[in-house]
Amino acid sequence: MRLSQFHLATVKEIPADAEIASHKLMLRAGMIRRLASGLYTWSPLGLRVLRKVENVVREEMNRAGAIELLMPSVQPRELWEETGRWEKFGGQLLKIKDRKQQEFCYGPTHEEVITDFARNELKSYKQLPVNFYQIQTKFRDEIRPRFGVMRAREFLMKDAYSFHLTQESLAATYAVMYQAYTRIFTRLGLSFRAVQADTGAIGGNASHEFQVLADSGEDAIAFSDGSDYAANIEKAEALAPTNTRPTATAALQQVATPTQKTIEDVAAFLGVSPDRCVKTLLLRGRDGLVALCLRGDHQVNEVKAAKLDELGGESILASEEEILAAIGTRPGFIGPVGLPDSIPVIVDRDAAVLADFVCGGNADGTHCTGANWARDARISRIADIRNVVEGDRSPDGEGILHIARGIEVGHVFQLGTKYAEALDAVVLNDQGKTQVMTMGCYGIGVSRIVAAAIEQRHDDAGIVWPEAMAPWRVAVCVINPKHLPEVSEAAQALYEALNAHGIETVLDDRGLRPGGMFADMELIGIPHRVVISDRGLTAGTLEYRGRTETESRAITQEQLFDLLG
RNA sequence: CGGGGUAUAGCUCAGUCUGGUAGAGCGUUGCGUUUGGGACGCAAAAGUCGGGGGUUCGAAUCCCUCUGCCCCGACCA
Questions:
Q1: CA–C1' nearest nucleotide, residue A143
Q2: If you placed Cys at A419, which of A115, A290, A459, A462 could pair as Cys (CB 3.0 to 4.6 Å)?
Q3: Is residue A72 part of a domain?
Q4: Which part of the chain is the Aminoacyl-transfer RNA synthetases class-II family profile domain (predicted)?
């Protein structure tokens, strides 16, 4: 590509509301333009990168035996009624009506459509297993779109759905997809980690997320330094403490804490550390309020909590009014001591081994000191309901846990029969009997990968693309093309030679001053730069500089081809 | 959904408190000089000050209202 014939649109100034590096750099490089909240146009430059990612994904999916198809982005309400998700999916589902007032949604995902396709197309176990995928635009009406294409409302996703007769077959395809994902992210040059993920309300058997490691990531992941254990913090189990509860030595006392409502304030006020306090949360349970007790320095894990029988799938905090009505105090002073018998008290494993602890006094402006389980407070059940923290023992018993941040770019999931059952997707098995298929689903956030890569790879000058994602591998920059015809001819010749060797090259023939040209090529992250000038022409060498190098070096054309492989 | 902010030239923003001729930088266009790390000079085009209503002799500015966008929060007491 000759840049004079391209639309490169870098800018110096960007809106102040771009917060993270990838968002800023994508705007500055002119890869994307915002159309409306969470909606972006991909410029010619941005699209080149997006296509690179897409093609790697497509190649590896094909290699792994998946078959590409394309489903509509607009989907009829009736299909979503069949799985009950028309209502259950919530506000993220963008609902639209056509001229006949028929209702549709813009697809946030395609389980319904693919399962409908499968129930019509697949009739025999002989057609299984099969794995269909598409690369398609999705729309999720996010509560708060942010970070550019990282959390946009409209985004490009690769989603695959596999169909099986048996769990063993599903597990096999799942493993193949896991391997394919590992290849994809490795080829894309990303530093990533596959982590165990929560299977959510669907309750499937296995699920892994592929997380690109970046400090700006919205997910927290826990990984062991003594094994390959890694899990989303939502999923990571906090092991029971090894010590048992000491015997009570202190007497229960009620103390005045007039304005101290947070653990930090109470602990500081009473001169104890937060890990000697018990914090109590009241949630809406299946049959009335439920109390959760945790050590003051720990945080409740909502995913774990929601799975408690007492809560029945959701973890919703009780309102101040409900709490006032039930126990006569407000948030900030709740404690396990003297709670009504009707409220189950679920105690975290670590909170359960505390003795002589501090907790809320169940009266405004009071806390208790010297509280002890059994003697002063009832335990209905002990459970793991907290987030793991840095330094916890790894659940597999090997090493200790560390916490890192990640950007979820892929998710593989053994769905089971949930959708196939709801939509009656059945085949005849080898006994001639009708059998519901079991499913897997495998997603990759194609557009998000572009942002995630930049998060991971950038410097002061701009983006530092991995070779596999760069819009072009090489930039040939011409200095002062108008002065000497030989200079622009030499640049042209090199440009053509590189492309002829299958090395994607861009020729910067815009005639900019060198500073502007170099700055642009660095901003848009081209891995290799070759400068052609009268200076080099006289010397018979090319001036080469890699994107992350700080000095140029003189090399021959032969050396350049060697270097580019 | 709650709270806060914001909307002025293509972009980034001043100007609003204290009402009185619409501003800057970047970008764009033309001419000239320049040409190895985002050049310089001269000239120019460019705005329904988000929409609607009101107050006023007069509104970007004050009041009401609608809308878009952004930020924070939406359980961790």
A1: B1
A2: A115
A3: yes
A4: 33-466
Query: Are A53 and A123 in a shared domain?
Result: yes
Residues 64-123 of A with CB under 7 A from strand B: none
The pLDDT assigned to A92 comes to 86
| Token pair in block for residue A549 | 């190098």
Quickly list DSSP for A454-508.
HHHSEETTEE---TTT-S-SEEEEESSTTT-HHHHHHHHHHHHHHHHTT--EEEE
Structural domain tally of chain A?
A: 3
How many residues can be counted in chain A? 565
Pairwise CA distance, residues A463 & A456, whole Å: 9
Instruction: Tell me, yes or no, whether A324 and A284 share the same domain.
Output: yes
Residue nearest to nucleotide B10 (CA to C1'): A11
Domain carrying residue A137: 47-236+403-454
Å: A36 CA to B68 C1': 9
Residue A237 CA to B48 C1' — how many Å? 61
Of residues A543 and A308, more confidently modeled: A543
Measured in degrees and rounded to the nearest 5, phi and psi for residue A466 equal: -65, 150
Is any atom of strand B within 7 angstroms of residue A7's beta carbon? no
A389 in any annotated domain: no
Same domain, A208 and A281: no
Residue A161 shares a structural domain with residue A274: no
Task: Tell me the CATH number at A86.
Answer: 3.30.930.10
Strand B bases, protein C-beta under 7 A = 1, 11-13, 25-27, 34-39, 68-77
- A224 and A307 part of one domain: no
Tell me the two tokens of residue A117: 């396709």
pLDDT of residue A494: 96
Query: For residue range A131-161, what is the model confidence (pLDDT) as tens digits?
Result: 999 999 999 988 888 889 999 999 999 999 9
CATH number (domain holding residue A478): 3.40.50.800
Residues 6+ apart with CB under 8 A from A180: A60, A61, A63, A64, A66
Residues A56 and A199 in one domain: yes
Q: Do both A445 and A483 map to the same domain?
A: no
pLDDT tens for residues A212-246? 999 888 889 999 999 999 999 988 999 999 999 99
- Specify if A23 maps to a domain: no
Q: Is residue A167 part of a domain?
A: yes
Regarding whether A424 and A363 lie in a shared domain, the answer is no
**Quick one: pLDDT band at residue A202, thresholds 50, 70, 90?**
low
What percent of chain A has a predicted confidence (pLDDT) above 70? 99
